[in-house]
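Incident review: delayed structure delivery

Summary: a single-chain prediction request sat in the queue longer than the usual turnaround. Root cause was a stuck worker, restarted by the on-call engineer. No data loss occurred. The affected request and its eventual output are reproduced below so the record is complete for anyone auditing the incident later.

Affected input:
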Amino acid sequence: MATIDDFRKIELVIGEVKEVKDHPNADKLFVVKVDTGKEIRQVVAGIKKSYKPEDLVGRQVVLVSNLDPAVIRGEESQGMILAASDENGICVLQPDKKVTLGSIAK
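Output delivered after worker restart:
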């Protein structure tokens, strides 16, 4: 079990998807540029089977912003976009109304 202190270590911020490209080395991945209001982050996301790039650009998302960068199939990922999945596919989590970029999700 995780403690509340463990949860508090995770930084969840609202970002806006600015660009989505196919990952050059993976069939199920996108390389996504997310604006956090302070910077543009590159994130590798396994959501390609559920979304078209044009469905994501302009959408606000919840970003885990304090993960150590990771290289995923040759592309650096500087965070993680939160999503839910079930037998129907993947659903990117987003605020139900527009909020200021960089707002903290809690």
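Verification: Helices lie at 4-8, 53-56.
Action items: add queue-age alerting; document worker restart procedure.
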